[in-house]
Sequence to fold (78 residues):
Amino acid sequence: ALLEERLSATDRICGAGTTGSGRSLAGALIGADIVKNEITAHSVAALSQVPQVRTVLEIGGQDSKIIILKSGIVVDFA
Fold:
């Protein structure tokens, strides 16, 4: 269903962001406020939930990633 059909009269969209391999195109199509790569998106999300996180594993439909953080900074990924 379209997003409009699922929103109530009191819902308000404050911003939109895109990530993933199609982030640039999708961002341009929807007028995204922010366009970020998956490494950044996953790292920021993980840090917001577990500030001392050191490893993030992402298993997606197209590929998988491991992100290594040290003191909140991405030091390696593959």
Notes: The chain has one domain: 14-77. The two ends are 35 Å apart (CA to CA).
